[in-house]
UniProtKB/TrEMBL annotation, chains A, B:
GO terms for biological process: carbohydrate metabolic process. GO terms for molecular function: carbohydrate binding; glycosyltransferase activity; hydrolase activity, hydrolyzing O-glycosyl compounds. The keyword Zinc does not apply. Residues 697-757 form the Glycoside hydrolase family 65 C-terminal domain. Residues 14-267 form the Glycoside hydrolase family 65 N-terminal domain. Keywords: Hydrolase. Gene3D superfamilies: 1.50.10.10, Glycoside hydrolase, family 65, N-terminal domain, Maltose phosphorylase, domain 3. Residues 322-688 form the Glycoside hydrolase family 65 central catalytic domain. This is Glycoside hydrolase family 65 protein.
Length: 766, 766
């Protein structure tokens, strides 16, 4: 189902024509969110065709119990599911006695969806002929407010075209929702109270087990020909449901509308969620729909002002990068350090949990460069706040003395990924969490985070690696056995080069920072040492592991080996693999994948990406040439790294191909699964492909470096970087690069190593 | 729960005293079976304490669907569960208006269970005081007939001790049973019909999905003071239940009894199961309870006549081996080639499926030497009959051209083990299936099986190994990647020595037999070649793999390595492991087990057991000394192999310790899990420990060889071998060995290599 129905457009995602087969895909692609909540683009009105109903509240989850026949010791007891929240968007419509249902109309024409990414507004319009012969035109406008982030707004307009219409608007709230991925067909929500007054409805429900209470609310206004109407609705309640029924006569050619305000107030933020809901409604009504729509456009304009990337001469590439940036901002805005960036954001349920190593490895660079640096600091603090849980988690696996293993997946700091051994094996995640601390300091220059919080995290992680390594008398070196690297198409391997390398680096970096904090922040040092009790003996033992780590290497090929035994594989390149066998994760049995040489996502090359400065360009070329031919990129997180490295190596055609693949992964549905939701975290990789890949941006010695390149297909592109509270705009054409600075102080940048001074509010062309 | 409540006895398993905590363990230990059906030793009467109700019919299973979050391609859709069959043993008892329930009596005394292994009869007796003050004595006698193997017999006697008693016997049939291990709390049986006439009751039910129909039946006779009574029962039916109610007044001191005949007739064996059930009842009544009890003793005497092993001077060792031999014969008698030897027999549900490599690796030698050789041939034919399914199974994993991969676990030839990658990885099972063919011919001299059936199996297996091996250009040899060897505490390893070794052997043996069949059975050869289409090119390619197989070897230690990378492990011996860490499968997380050096069961040493003649005794000693110290024996299949090898190496104390562990594994509950059922297949390993270990029996060049040894704790032991239709009895004392032959022709045997002639019905002392 490699779709191509999305119209190319610089600012909008557009679908034209109604196709029931595309409904679930479009529900994913047209999803909207505001960081606090989000929803798939489900129809407001009844729809009896195939649909995947989804509405989500940030931070609200459910620990679904898991059943596996051969349970492995150490598995967590549950898998935290992103929880389908009560439905507040529902508005059933009756026209001349018939229920409006696009699956049942005799004709649907001019069907159009548009997600205006510039403004953050989703619209849908169509004309339809009902079975009773009534012809109508429908226009729906919907947004989740960035300003009032517990509220969403819907304006649902109906114009009868060929006759007068008796229209009944039936807006409702429904907490009787379930998760598509529930293991036990259990109910996740316990209804507490459903009530209504005038035009307001409220359903309060509490999640089982986690006890999040949420009040789902609505307020409705009926409008005829532009004038608000006073209609007393019929109302009905059940324990988890509130519904109103507004009957209105609409003459042919006039427009009847319902303006529904709805959303959630949650016990994470309020003691009395019902009272809070009343206040949100009051606030929303005080200014009204149009004022919030104006604010919405202004808020998105502010986001784009800083984070937009323009591409000239390639509308599909432009649409792709904006879609990625838009979705990242819909998912996470960095306001709340209790939240994180779920792999599907608010667009689906698959994967569960909210936090993977994706956050540190892929997302932080984007947020760091396009937001206030507090946002990245919040993301780091999220892990600091969960350090005790990471130490507990390591304890469950037999580690001691403050060793920390951050979970594979989490909602609250506990491991919540089970059912597969990689939970225990994919420990490289710990490395990315330490790397993010290094990266944050490198980019922002804000060292304060390390004495305040970062060092404790670094030491917990270093202790883990120290204890996790094994001394091999045979090799007279330390080895790390039984891991899964970033490439999940290998399980339980020994000496994954990436893991060994980042383990060594983590220990070295933690000990270096310990020394620096001791020298420069003695009070913090004393506080931390009193807590973590790091003795000289342990320090020396840790250093010994780092200094004597084993790295598998092939003299013959002159490359580090992804893991021990990689050369035993039958090294047939992807190019020589019959196309009918792809994607191998759908065509091959798991054992065949495991013993094949095929790489799901950058693994050794991920190490070359993180630690680029440790290796020469020749080294990179050698490793890229060795591993790229075996990489199938069946993870969304893979092509961006290869795109960056191809750009570094000056292989622009290849870099461009990888760029398109990463930026339009969902729009063009490369992996044939967009129905299930979008790949949010890899979207930050797309941003990196342009800024770090084509733009060649790096931070070295407290300065920005660029090696600008441009794909042949583009006329020009531009991006902005918030570098230490000054905004640098970089515009790259086929022949020149311009730097413009919004700030107060001049800034040194290096272009291909040559120093350039950019003056405040000045422009430099290279 | 290391129990020691079973009384030592040469012929009986005896429990004295009632302990509610032991009920589930005793239900396992006192299980009875007759090859066609079996049951845990559940009480007949109501019991409200903790119990695990289990009744099983050979060959009747249910494909339970499985749910795993991260499904791997290639997993089978279901896990075949050993199905809990309808209950026919139930007899509720009312005494003076009170329900008899041992959990509710005010006093229980003289409680005794006895499983008489010599006779195949299980008895239970106790005295009890009911809450209403009635004192009673109860004696129950139960057996599953070996002669009429669809029927079981119960004689349930009650004697009121302190007053007259109004007794109501309420025998019933109940198809509303469930499996303890059901994944979905689904019902597995669909009731079709429940009916009764006179004293007969019938419930016919059909399994969902597999559509086995079983009629569960009963017939009841009430006896007072030895005289059968004519009492018209009250009867009640529901859709899955039939119950009778017989009221009788029993004077103090007299005995009232119910004789219940019950059992199953199944659609595997009958077109009309209800009619068949009527006939079984007729047959049972024609001779009656006592006659069938006599026949039962005679049938078990015949079994013991051939398969008994006597041990003098060590009652616990004697009880252990008889318990093992008894259970094997209760589980499988070799009459029906559709059946096989489930790992828990009829004593529990855990593991599911009926057939593992256990059959070929452990059970066949026992059945071959203690039964008519047709029985072993039936076990081989079971795999031949499933060859097409094994080829299909390999096809699902991407293998072609007739390559066969026998399932990890099966009921009907299909793979039914899922939820864990070893399904795909533990492919060494294929090797044991080929080895059994070789072993059958070696032992019986019956070559005819190979041209008739065996060669096709051998070639399917050889093709699998050929395709499964990978050519490593790096090693310039063939490697086998991504396997799990017999030691399941290693997963997804490369070049497991045992697997590589047996793979090479399978190819060599298949090609040798192809040549022999071509030369000696040209008609069979043509038939087989027309079917399997083995060309010269494929043959040569197969041979090349066998000739160039890679075997990991350590020069330093002079041993083959269990797999690549074994020496990277931290080689701390089990002796140096803190006892609090054992058993590691309960104390450690799975990842820690995987990267440890600890060996769950003989792996490299399993290869030395199978291919003993390929290696010198010095080689064996070196490998035993290297691997034994890392072996935790947390599989029931492990100690027997180590016992045999310790005996071969003359380390009798160690051999004896392993023997006790294997023979009393369940009686002494070494693994703390006997509640779940018995370890049936490993019991054949116990037999091997004595015959092949202590007795040193081998077959070489069509002759029996012995190297008799005896543990210091024993005065003497003896066993019999059916060698090519002559029965050789071997009696081994501390100073001499006697051979006695029941047969027609003299037989040459070798004792420590020295030839000895044993005449028919003669006796030789060495």
């Amino acid at each position: 189902m490699n779709q191509d129905y999305i119209q190319p457009d610089n600012w909008c995602i557009i679908e034209e024509g109604f196709d029931a087969e595309r409904v679930k895909s479009s529900e994913s692609l047209f999803s909207i969110g505001n960081g606090a909540m989000g929803q798939r683009a489900n129809f407001e009105e009844q729809y009896s065709g195939n649909t995947f109903q989804g509405s989500y509240i940030a931070g609200v989850y459910y620990p679904d119990k898991t059943k596996v026949g051969w349970w492995k010791n150490g598995y967590p007891e549950y898998f935290a599911k992103v929880l389908n929240a009560p439905n507040w968007i529902g508005i059933n419509i009756e026209i001349n006695g018939e229920e409006l249902d696009l699956a049942k109309c005799t004709q649907v024409s001019d069907f159009r969806r548009e997600l205006n990414m510039k403004e953050g507004i989703y619209t849908r319009s169509f004309s339809a002929v009902l079975q009773n012969g009534t012809e109508i035109e429908v226009n729906v406008r919907r947004f989740l407010s960035l300003d009032l982030d517990e509220a969403g707004f819907i304006n649902y307009q109906i114009k009868p075209l060929n006759k007068d219409a008796a229209i009944v608007f039936k807006p409702y709230l429904d907490a009787g929702v379930h998760n598509e991925d529930a293991n036990w067909e259990e109910k996740f929500w316990e209804p507490l109270q459903a009530q209504h007054t005038d035009n307001r409805g409220f359903v309060t429900a509490r999640t089982f087990k986690t006890h999040f209470t949420a009040t789902t609310f609505m307020h409705n206004t009926i409008v005829l020909g532009g004038s608000p109407q006073t209609i007393t609705p019929q109302a009905s309640n059940s324990e988890d449901h509130v519904a109103f029924s507004y009957a209105i006569s609409c003459p042919q050619g006039q427009t009847a509308a319902i303006q529904k305000i709805g959303g959630y107030t949650v016990s994470m933020n309020h003691e009395n969620t019902q009272q809070a809901a009343e206040q949100v409604i009051d606030q929303a009504l005080a200014l009204g729909f149009e004022a919030y729509e104006t604010k919405q456009k202004e808020a998105w304009a502010r986001i784009w002002e800083m984070s937009d990337i323009t591409i000239e001469g390639d509308v599909k590439a432009q649409q792709g990068i904006r879609f990625n940036i838009f979705q990242l901002n819909q998912t996470y805005l960095g306001k709340d350090s209790r939240l994180n960036i779920g792999p599907k954001g608010f667009t689906g349920e698959k994967y569960g949990g909210s936090t993977y190593w994706d956050t540190e490895a892929y997302c932080i660079p984007f947020y760091m460069a396009t937001k206030d640096q507090q946002v990245a600091r919040n993301l780091l603090a999220y892990r600091y706040n969960q350090l005790d849980r990471a130490i507990e988690n390591a304890g469950k696996l037999g580690f001691k003395n403050g060793a920390a293993l951050y979970p594979m997946v989490t909602m609250n700091g506990e491991e919540c990924h089970n059912e597969w051994e990689i939970t225990f094996e994919e420990i490289h995640r710990n490395g990315a969490i330490a790397f993010a601390i290094f990266n944050y300091y490198r980019f922002t220059g804000d060292y304060s985070y390390i004495p305040e919080k970062g060092l404790e995290v670094l030491l917990g992680i270093a202790r883990f690696w120290h204890q996790r390594a094994t001394f091999s008398t045979y090799r007279n070196q330390y080895v790390i056995l039984g891991v899964t690297g970033p490439n999940e198409y290998e399980n339980n391997v020994n000496n994954n080069w990436y893991t060994n390398y980042i383990a060594k680096w983590c220990i070295d970096y933690a000990l270096e920072q310990t020394d620096r904090v001791k020298a420069e922040y003695p009070a913090d040092y004393s506080r931390i040492m009193a807590k973590v009790q790091l003795g000289d003996e342990e320090r020396a033992a840790m250093q010994k592991v780092a200094d004597n780590m084993y790295f598998p290497y092939s003299e013959e090929h002159g490359v580090y080996l992804q893991q021990d035994g990689f050369l035993d594989k039958e090294l047939i390149t992807v190019a020589d693999l019959d196309k009918s066998q792809r994607p191998i994760n759908q065509k091959w049995s798991w054992d065949r994948i495991l013993r094949s040489p095929y790489i799901k996502q950058a693994d050794t090359l991920q190490g070359f990406y993180f630690f680029e400065d440790h290796f020469s360009k020749e080294d990179l070329a050698k490793h890229f040439d060795f591993y790229e031919p075996f990489t199938v990129h069946e993870s969304s997180l893979s092509p961006c790294v290869h795109s960056i490295q191809a750009a570094v190596l000056g292989r622009m055609e290849q870099a461009y191909t990888f760029y398109l693949r990463t930026s339009r992964l969902d729009l063009d549905d490369y992996n044939k699964e967009v129905e299930e939701g979008l790949h949010i975290t890899s979207m930050a990789g797309t941003w990196m492909s342009i800024v770090e890949g084509f733009g060649g941006m790096r931070v070295r010695d407290n300065a920005l470096h660029f090696e600008p390149r441009i794909p042949a297909q583009w006329e020009a592109y531009s991006f902005k970087i918030n570098f230490r509270n000054q905004i640098l705009k970089v515009s790259i054409g086929q022949n020149e690069t311009q730097f413009a600075l919004e700030g107060n102080e001049p800034i040194r940048v290096y272009v291909f190593g040559k120093e350039i001074l950019v003056e405040p509010n000045g422009l430099v062309t290279v």
